[in-house]
Structure formats: C-alpha cells, structure tokens
Design brief:
This protein is 35% helix and 8% strand. By secondary structure, it is α+β, with helices and mostly antiparallel strands. The protein folds into two domains: 42-119; 152-279, no CATH class. The strands form two sheets. A four-stranded mixed β-sheet has the order 3-4-5-6. Strands 1-2 form a two-stranded antiparallel ribbon. It is elongated. Pathway: Protein modification; protein ubiquitination.
Length: 290
C-alpha cells in the first residue's frame, strides 16, 4: 500500500506498532462460542431475521410474488421460533419481557400474512426448492405403509379425500359434574356427555369401548355406502377435564381451563388454532404422522 506525497511521489505505507516492543506478538485468547441466551442476543437475532419487511410488504402488496410471500412467512416463523426457544432459558427479566412483547407482535403478523396469502390464492409450498412435489409420504411398499398407518383413520392421511369438517361442541353437551361418573365415561371421552355428531347420549351407548367406537365412527363419516366428510371436534375445555396440564404436541404448551381444544377421531387432542394451522399444510394427525 502506498500514499501520495506532496511532490507527487509514492511512498510505501508502513503501519506503526501500537504499544509494546516491535516484533512482539499479541497472545490471542481461545474463544468458545456459546449458544446460551445470556451470551447470545436472541431478540436482536429475531429482529434481524424479520428486518423491516412489514413496511416494505405494505408498500408493494399487490406486486408481491409468491416467492416473496413465502420468504416473509418463513422469516417470521423462524423469528418466532427463535424467540420461544430463547425465552425458555433466558434469565434476564428485562430482555425476556422484550422478547415476549416481540413474540406476540410477530405471531400476530405471521397469522395475518398467512391469512392474506390464503385469501389471495397463493400456494404456500413447504417443500424444498427443486424437490419432487408429493402429497403423500414416499414409501417402498404398500405393506410397510399400511403398517405405519394401521391405527390412523384412512380419511386422516388419504390425500384424495376431502378436507376435515370442523364440528363445534356446545358447552351444554359437555360433561356436567355428577351427570356422568368416571366409571360410565372413558378417559378419552370424559369431556363429552353426548355424541357431538348424532347428539345421542353416550350414557345410552354402553361402556367406554362402545362410546369410543360410536364417536369414532360418527367422526369418520359412518360406514354407509356414501360416507360423509370426516370431522373433528372443537370445544372449550371445562374445569373438570382430564386434559388440564397435558401438553399440546404442536406448540408444547399445556392445556388450561377455557382453552379451545380440537380432537380428531383418533382421540388425539390439540389446541384448535394449532391443529387448524397444521391441517393447512396438508398434514395428517401430528402424532400418527411421525
């Protein structure tokens, strides 16, 4: 490197030593990167992932391509996941509050963008670019495939079938304390007093096994020649539910009193919003799809 003198000649640049004798080296301390939230600012990381796409997307919403929409949704999804993981292990109370506020804002923005993309008819494809598009799992033989999905109703994983129909259960049709005992109702159906599809009293159906079979057949559309669309239940969790304190396998948060719960015909239960978001991706039951 050279610098220009006043007379126009080039003079080689030499860097002057800063402290210490010439020729002496500086010892470097070994650096071990840490992934703990106390040493890694996950809030700044989440902000960096999202950037200012909210302002830019609002300005060019009409011209936004499907690729840009997918990219924005993926960044928000990654940012919310980063915040959730960081909050669990963060011991800094002030930063944790900032992260919770940011998580709430990004979650609302994520749901808004997903709804906007769905209403605009944009296909949100979660497949890796360049991979073969498929709506069913890749399988070697039919026997292995049937063995994996033996306990799953066909309508929950058959891509050729129609979408699941949502059935909202009235609060009056949930089990009232004293109306049904735990002996008369199975643990799987302990929240239900009547069948939410045909409205028959489960107490009249028989024992727990008969009750489960009856509700399962109704949710799967029956066994007639022209079965109806498969259904899943949605209801508000009562205070006496056996699901209280159980984790939803999608969001890993516990069910609490008043939570809106969705229950599939395989008797797996999730938060209603979690299952709705999961089914929009074309997935089967989150538990049996593993």
């Amino acid at each position: 490197m050279y610098y220009l003198d006043s007379d126009g000649s080039l003079i080689p640049y030499t860097e002057e030593p800063r402290g210490g004798a010439v020729g002496e080296g500086q010892e470097l301390v070994n650096f071990v990167p840490s992934t703990s939230p106390s040493n890694r600012d996950y809030v700044a990381r989440a902000r960096y992932l999202v950037g200012n796409q909210s302002q830019s997307s609002e300005a060019g919403t009409s011209a936004a391509s499907a690729l840009e929409v997918r990219r924005a949704i993926a960044k928000l999804d990654r940012a919310t996941m980063e915040l959730r993981e960081g909050i669990l292990e963060d011991e800094d109370a002030e930063r944790r509050i900032q992260a919770e506020v940011l998580l709430n804002a990004y979650s609302r923005e994520l749901e808004r963008k997903k709804a906007s993309a769905s209403s605009s008819g944009l296909l949100i494809n979660t497949e890796v670019s360049g991979s073969t598009s498929a709506t069913t799992p890749q399988r070697v033989c039919q026997g292995c495939y049937d063995e994996i999905y033996a306990d799953v109703p066909a309508r929950l994983y058959n891509s050729g079938g129609t979408a699941l129909e949502r059935v909202v259960v009235d609060q009056e049709r949930l089990t009232i304390p004293g109306r049904l005992t735990r002996r008369q109702s199975s643990s799987q159906l302990s929240d239900l007093a009547d069948c939410p599809v045909c409205y028959q009293s489960l107490d009249e159906v028989g024992g727990p096994a008969e009750q489960e079979l009856h509700v399962k057949n109704c949710l799967e559309g029956g066994k007639g020649a022209t079965p109806e669309t498969a259904k899943y239940l949605v209801y508000r969790l009562p205070a006496e539910s056996t699901l209280l304190g159980v984790e939803c396998v999608i969001c890993l948060e516990e069910f609490v009193k008043g939570s809106m719960v969705a229950r599939l015909s395989c008797f797996c239960s999730f938060h209603s919003a979690c299952l709705s978001s999961w089914l929009q991706r074309g997935k089967s039951c989150p538990v049996h799809a593993r």
